[in-house]
Amino acid sequence: MKKTADIFNNIVNQRRSYREFEKGFKLPEGVVKRSLERAIKSPNSSNMQLWEFYRIRSKEALQEVGKICLSQSGAVSASEIVVFVARPDLWRKRIDAHLEHIGDSELKVVKNKLLNSSIHDYYKNVMPRFYNSSFPVIRDVFKWFYLLFKRRQGYFMSDVYSRHIPIVAQKSTALAAQTFMLSITAEGYESLPMEGLDAKRLKKFLGLPKKSEINMAIAVGKGVPEGLRGERFRIPYEKVVFEAR
């Protein structure tokens, strides 16, 4: 039996960005659903899960989104496209979901070591202070004074200003996107992450609010040989990995 590390290594090595898929190919039922279920389990900042995933499956929707993705060959030949969306604007709903989950369970008093508060207080009091974006200038001034005080006491987080909120959500959403693509490979199919797209039109097509952010669209299907653009090229390990001294 193969070791788990060997299996994972094979999946990572097999995952390639296919820029063309077999047209008209129908993915087996469950491939994308299972992969999205795995993506939902991805690590994310404070477990806020500020993401949404939109499946594009109908012929009409695929045609329109293909155009929105600048008519890339991967987009117009895909069996399905999944749009990964960062939703920092959903922070209140996510906090409510956490507080409901915690309820009166033992989690209510479990300590969050980072901020020396209970997990319940962390979501009820700390998270709203970070994610609330009303009056951003005023809030950022208060945060500046707070950070000045905390950092004089020792090490403390610095990326807590209003401009950091959408970045945090984008990072978490990208982690989910990677899990999804690895899962698609494990299922025996191929994918293509696409950032080259008309985000404004895509948000309009999906009916998304202003504060949402398109992270990427991922085309999925059965890759064809011509969908690969040569051998994989990566900058050598020793040129990108360094040891701090």
Shape summary: globular
The number of strands is 6
CATH superfamily: NADH Oxidase
Distance between the termini: 40 Å
**CATH architecture annotation name:** 3-Layer(aba) Sandwich
Low-confidence stretches: none
The number of helical elements comes to 10
Strand order of the largest sheet: 1-2-6-5
Whole-angstrom Rg: 21 Å
Average pLDDT level: 94
What order do the SSEs take from the amino end to the carboxyl end, as H and E? HHEHHEHEEHHHEHEH
Q: Tell me about the largest β-sheet.
A: 4 strands, antiparallel
Helical content stands at 40-55%
SSE class: alpha+beta
Number of spatially distinct domains? 1
CATH topology name: NADH Oxidase
The amount of beta strand, in percent, is 5-15%
Write up what this structure looks like.
The strands form two sheets. Strands 1-2-6-5 form a four-stranded antiparallel β-sheet, sandwiched between helices. Strand 3 and strand 4 (117-118) form a beta hairpin. With 245 residues, the chain is α+β, with helices and mostly antiparallel strands. Helices cover 47% and strands 13% of the residues. The model has no long low-confidence stretch (mean pLDDT 94). It starts with a helix and ends in a 5-residue tail after the last helix. The chain has a single domain, classed as NADH Oxidase. It has helices at residues 4-14, 31-40, 59-68, 73-77, 91-102, 119-131, 136-153, 164-186, 199-206, 237-240, and strands spanning 51-56, 80-86, 111-112, 117-118, 190-194, 213-221.
